[in-house]
Design goal:
The structure is a homotetramer of 348-residue chains. Chain A has 348 residues and is of the alpha/beta class. Chain A is 41% helix and 16% strand.
Chain lengths: 348, 348, 348, 348
Amino acid sequence: MFFASDNAGPAHPKVMEALVKANEGYAMGYGADPIMDAVRAQVREVFEAREAAVYLIINGTAANSVLLATMSKPWQTIFCSDCAHIHEDECNAPEFYSGAKLTLVPATDGKMTADDLRAKITGEENRGVHGPQRGPLSITQVTEKGTIYTLEEIAALTATAQEFGMKSHLDGARFANALTALDCSAAEMTWKVGVDTVSLGGTKNGALGVEACVIFDPDIAWEFELRRKRGGHLLSKHRYLSAQMQAYLADGLWLDMAQAANARCAQLAAGLRAHNGVTMLFEPQANIIFFEMPRREHKRMLDAGAVYYVMNGDPETGDADENLTGRLVCDWSMTAEGVDQFLTLLRG
Amino acid sequence: MFFASDNAGPAHPKVMEALVKANEGYAMGYGADPIMDAVRAQVREVFEAREAAVYLIINGTAANSVLLATMSKPWQTIFCSDCAHIHEDECNAPEFYSGAKLTLVPATDGKMTADDLRAKITGEENRGVHGPQRGPLSITQVTEKGTIYTLEEIAALTATAQEFGMKSHLDGARFANALTALDCSAAEMTWKVGVDTVSLGGTKNGALGVEACVIFDPDIAWEFELRRKRGGHLLSKHRYLSAQMQAYLADGLWLDMAQAANARCAQLAAGLRAHNGVTMLFEPQANIIFFEMPRREHKRMLDAGAVYYVMNGDPETGDADENLTGRLVCDWSMTAEGVDQFLTLLRG
Amino acid sequence: MFFASDNAGPAHPKVMEALVKANEGYAMGYGADPIMDAVRAQVREVFEAREAAVYLIINGTAANSVLLATMSKPWQTIFCSDCAHIHEDECNAPEFYSGAKLTLVPATDGKMTADDLRAKITGEENRGVHGPQRGPLSITQVTEKGTIYTLEEIAALTATAQEFGMKSHLDGARFANALTALDCSAAEMTWKVGVDTVSLGGTKNGALGVEACVIFDPDIAWEFELRRKRGGHLLSKHRYLSAQMQAYLADGLWLDMAQAANARCAQLAAGLRAHNGVTMLFEPQANIIFFEMPRREHKRMLDAGAVYYVMNGDPETGDADENLTGRLVCDWSMTAEGVDQFLTLLRG
Amino acid sequence: MFFASDNAGPAHPKVMEALVKANEGYAMGYGADPIMDAVRAQVREVFEAREAAVYLIINGTAANSVLLATMSKPWQTIFCSDCAHIHEDECNAPEFYSGAKLTLVPATDGKMTADDLRAKITGEENRGVHGPQRGPLSITQVTEKGTIYTLEEIAALTATAQEFGMKSHLDGARFANALTALDCSAAEMTWKVGVDTVSLGGTKNGALGVEACVIFDPDIAWEFELRRKRGGHLLSKHRYLSAQMQAYLADGLWLDMAQAANARCAQLAAGLRAHNGVTMLFEPQANIIFFEMPRREHKRMLDAGAVYYVMNGDPETGDADENLTGRLVCDWSMTAEGVDQFLTLLRG
């Protein structure tokens, strides 16, 4: 009953096997390993983007920060949702790497609208050299609230950005979960709807720790490489990153894992909705659920061994009837039995 | 005959086994995994430092940069040798993380002397607010030239630093190689001779990618954690770092590997010295050799499949008699047969 | 009829005379001039703070940025109003100097409430190393909207900050205008209500270009000096800053000028209120007025030679009846006749 | 007998008059004042560069730092002499603004040679993404040692830089002193010999505090403006900078002042050379002299009221016969009588 995070589960055995297999003999370091050549080809094929620059990096904070720094200038502001990971959970890393600041677009259910984005962009208008200049847009897909932008919504956001000369980044820490939910191609969810760069997550979906940074405009690739190195994010024994990503993408493993996680989440959501006293906060479209339930119920579940975060209050102390928000995340390794166990327990 | 770098060899099977074993079930992320508790205890025992703060990070550039940033202020200068990795090979990462600059102390054979250090420290004297202020000292052990500071030499450097209120960092990317060469304890090579923080390398000595940052004064530990996170260097699935370090330190594996690498290097050095036309540039005290040899000889070796770096000229083009510098590095996995093969080839 | 900004007017003749007088003979540079000793004593007397560290700097952006950087860490967030100068008009300078980010507290009339501040502080709670850490609070007095915090309101804000271990900065670009409006002492408006550092403006109130940075806790003074120098803000011929501030503070000149500006603003506000079709947007408590008026009226005024900013639309183009926001600022040199001329013109 | 620094003397009366005259009525801020239009035209005429971008800033540290930041990237290294002001006397400001590091070229008499520059550039070759990348060259004219590059020497340096794709900056804190000594035009000393940007000093030569930043390639002008603002270096009451520079350049005042300073320096040097026990350290070609003299002689002069810096030892304490280095600087206001007084005193 472990629903705390999708970064707490194990790596997929095939990923681990690939790592073991890669550990043979000598290989040139720093991305010059032959596996990386294969990974580059795989990613380009997945994105139908033959010119794309492809780099690997250890985690999402680094992927986002180095990409956004490459896309922006220190006197600019990066537009993102007010609950974006880059704003709330990266301890100023994007600002550290880029020098830019963040402008927060309201996003109650995790999703910005093009209108709200436009309002924020034009709200800063006409200050000339005095105000921060307009930098890139960063879209999180799956959002932090477990919701998913439609392709039309992404297109509307990036079109708004383009209107003001701004590029668009997609924080895809849960890219595969969105892709499988939308049942579209990687190209359709990115450059075909105006996305310029992607942080393609592996870590939360069955890898040990690897993300691909995909840059559709190779002109900025060399700057990315220098920024990655300067941030201490170029690995010497790079083959261990390459091997993870190779196995992750091979034979659709990444999509299978995301589909499994989403399916478990749907099963869980259905059970929760059927339960008296539970309110869903957002439509769970991928592998994350936010729900409200009285404190006493949270306490009962946690005491019985369920593991998940209660966000806005101590489940141990306070009014037993008060509603608290819980977050449940399913990773690829969650089983239908695990979900059933949780739901059975919930029904008491 | 792969002597290009000690980051091009495989990880030790025991390290890989530990990784596979760690990949079971759920584990809290971001360093809260139980293996990290064991690693912390191991490192403290190795260093005989019960209060030391211990953190893991993916590579040496990150370890050095986050440690030095934690020890310095952006208006200071960090003293290091003029061939230090932090100066030459980290693409400004230490400056990026710290904001400080570097003051280069001459070090022909890779080793600074206390006198040269003092000259550089006092050479910047008396400028008050105008000049960079004195920041920490960074000592590389094993040096970039393959030489090793004696304990007395380290003590003299850190004492000089202390005299001016400066702390000392030890870049121990090849810490184990030095330790086994000096046949002393980790405590003797660090805090007992005045070292305040250590980058304890694993990557170059049989791990996939992990370094321990050891901070003897726990007062600055929280700042280190924030800087690590802000640099994108806190791993979510941290157990995979922990598992590597745990296996690396267990049962003296790290020392065994370093000893093997050093022994192969000694074997190689003996063979080189016996060869007509070869000049050793520095005393190879660990696992790195710099030597001069005519271009034609380099070309012959490389053509025959030896892999190593030629530093100051193209081995393919130019005067066949001109001496060029080669660098040979032995990692833990190099065999006596591999060295013999090289030497046999050299003898022609 | 120049109401565009209080930085567009001349310096007061007494300030200019002091500058001319200071231009005699030799004086040690970088703040070691004897006039600075006098200024330090003046500022300490004005603030009834005998230990305060006092520094001069050329403008408000620099004063705010260097002070806030000295009070914060690069992994923190600085709390300020959503219309603060440090957020909107300094092109990321506070972020550049500090490395920190800004958290915006809603402030419709320019003033944050302690409740809103608390909500923002606790809204970021419990993310440990992942989220930005709590940095200082920055209060703007007079606010960007021309309103003024009461002493009680400042005390409530700083008390809230203190509760969370946060220090408080006061951006006093129009400090004198607030002081004279509140009819209180500088001590009462600052450290007696919990303010730790002050940017004391001179530039907008009759100086050529000088602000005093006042630090009540001298422990951080040396860091301020280094940060000022590192930002290129330590003037060699510092006496010209000192002379301005000396004349500015002498014999209450600064308060006289602020009083004059505020009085002209009150006269102007009274006239505007009496005019049909004008709506005041905020209560003008110092020397700034925001008002709404139909586009046709703005156009008429501007065409007739009035100089001021129209904020949210082009006065030349668009629906003649549409209300647009105008901003009028009175500086010390504005005359009653100048105001009358504007009002007469307005009445048509 | 004040020879401590050329930033300790007064501003020229004509500069002060211009300042007083500029203090009339209203003027738009932030560089939109009409005087700045005149200054721009003056500077362009002086440099025979009709397209040059021209900006004013308060001091040399800021001028150098903002220019170099605009010319470089944070993963680069800036080449300069090992005694450059940007290295020794700006408390890391150039690194702060640019993110780049500095590579020091040896310069015993203050002047780099093209050969030494080339050796430093190529000494960092072939590290790819690992090493700092090549950034701009910064040349100091007059050098910190009081020597002057010939036009040929500058041309050789910038040609070497260009060969490696590097731009060249000229730190002209004492630009006028060099110009008048070389008896050439501003164009001949800058873009005609390959210089891309210039910090044109006013502060050390009769202004209160103003430098012009001259950028021959206007493509980077907007970035300069943003960086200046972000550094807090865009003055609101900008007319007071403009007025200084206007008067400074008008009717050759700047050259007259530099000529006077250089002439007094020549007079002083001749007297020193004639004095037994004095050794000149460098050829004083502008307005700065470094000389050696026994401690007892320094002490005698200082006790008698001469003001100058003794660089490498306490004149009060130590062996009376030991030679110590003194630095004498003549500013525009130094009189022949003042120099005579010093020399008479020296002769005893």
